[in-house]
Amino acid sequence: MADQLVPEQQLNIELTEEMADGEYANLAVITHSFAEFVIDFVNVMPNVPKAKVKSRIVMTPAHAKRLMRALIDNVKRFETQHGNIKDQEATTMPFNFGGTPTAQA
Is 60 contained in some domain? Predict the structure, then answer.
């Protein structure tokens, strides 16, 4: 019975008109605990000392690892088509999340 193929299930994903435009973010702040990863997407504007979180995604460590692998794969495919993405110089920005654990982006 192990030789029988399991029919592939298809997942229909709905993208509402409201979500279709997306949110622009130029900073991701990542924190984690033993049970979850929290990714805050932020839009930081030049010379503005305050920025708001535009979106927060909470996921399990296993899903975070799958996301990492998917991003690595997609960046490689992008660079194959369009050339290497140049890293920008790292900038240090002081963050104040009102007691949130120190994060890395």
Answer: yes
The answer to whether 54 and 42 are in contact (CB under 8 A) is yes
Domain count of the fold of the chain: 1
Q: Using alpha carbons, select from 86, 93, 85 the residue that is nearest to residue 46.
A: 93
Residue 28 structural domain: 22-82
For the entire predicted model, the pTM comes to 0.72
pLDDT in tens, 80-104: 999 999 988 666 666 665 555 455 4
**91 domain-assigned:** no
